[in-house]
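ESCALATION

Customer reports they have been waiting on this structure for their group meeting. Please prioritize. Original submission:
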Amino acid sequence: MNSDKEKVKEVLKRAIKGEEDGYYFYNLLSEKATNTDAKRKLQNLRDDELGHKRTLLAIYEKHVGGAVGPLPEKGLSVLSDIFGQGHTLQLKSEMEFLNLAIEAELAATQYYQRERNLIDDPEFGAVFDGLADEEHRHYELLMAEREALSGNYYWFGYGDTSPMED
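Update from on-call: job pushed to the front of the queue and completed.
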């Protein structure tokens, strides 16, 4: 296999691993969630990760071909380390889980943005742009959830008791 094709293979396998890690993470959280709204949001994030994996597998088939084979230990973010070392059980608060998810979504966004020009194929770039956009939307959603949980919803209050108060 030539070096360009090998690089594409490595990038795609790492992305596939990252999406698997994301799926596992959001599935774990959705099972722990007791709030029905939170459970639904987490299940949506989980299902998005599965869709991302399917997209990546289709791109893999087109540009590399054959079976994907074993995935690398490290995906796109810290999630691989957390799972590999069994640290998910050490996370106790919603804020710890949210912070980890935010970090993971930002890392995935940056990965897809960085690797979008890996090969000269407009479809490849468009797929990676789409994945970067979706991961960034996940990041923004999770940031908003974190702000809501921490009570920082006064986006222009500047010390007032309510936002945009007359």
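Sent to customer with the following note: The domain at 3-150 is CATH 1.20.1260.10 (Ferritin).
Escalation resolved.
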